[in-house]
Automatic annotation (TrEMBL):
SUPFAM superfamilies linked to this entry: Winged helix' DNA-binding domain (SSF46785)
Residue span, Transcription regulator PadR N-terminal domain: 10-83
InterPro entries, sorted: Metal_resp_DNA-bind_regulator (IPR052509), Tscrpt_reg_PadR_N (IPR005149), WH-like_DNA-bd_sf (IPR036388), WH_DNA-bd_sf (IPR036390)
Protein name as catalogued: Transcription regulator PadR N-terminal domain-containing protein
Lineage of the species this protein comes from: Bacteria, Bacillati, Actinomycetota, Actinomycetes, Micromonosporales
PANTHER family: PADR-FAMILY TRANSCRIPTIONAL REGULATOR
Length: 112
């Protein structure tokens, strides 16, 4: 299964430690150098989907300022899925890097 980039970064954010929703939003923005900015509704829909798939689970709930704050954590299944995606991306990057090197070599030979 190819993982969408926001899902990849949500799981990556939770690989470090359990986080509440706003913490996940901040971590994803940081990890993606600001390229991915999740809205709360998008995040919670993703977290529900990931929980249904067994990739994340509710870690705990805390009352903060009269509001309930839910913390989510990565499951073992989620960690395995993230590791598989990292491996897939590394393999793809290695193939592309080899082709780019080959292209550079052919270009240099052609211009000589």
């Amino acid at each position: 299964m190819v993982m969408q980039e926001p899902t990849f970064f949500i799981l990556t954010a939770l690989a470090e430690r359990p986080r509440h929703g706003y913490g996940v939003i901040q971590a994803v923005a940081d990890l993606s150098d600001g390229r991915i900015r999740l809205r709360a509704g998008t995040l919670y829909a993703a977290l529900d989907r990931l929980a249904d798939g067994g990739l994340v689970t509710l870690d705990r709930e805390e009352a903060v300022g009269g509001r309930l704050r839910r913390y989510y954590r990565l499951t073992e299944h989620g960690a395995a899925a993230l590791a598989a995606e990292v491996s897939r991306l590394q393999t793809n990057a290695a193939v592309a890097a080899a082709r780019i090197r080959s292209y550079g070599s052919r270009t240099a030979l052609g211009s000589a």
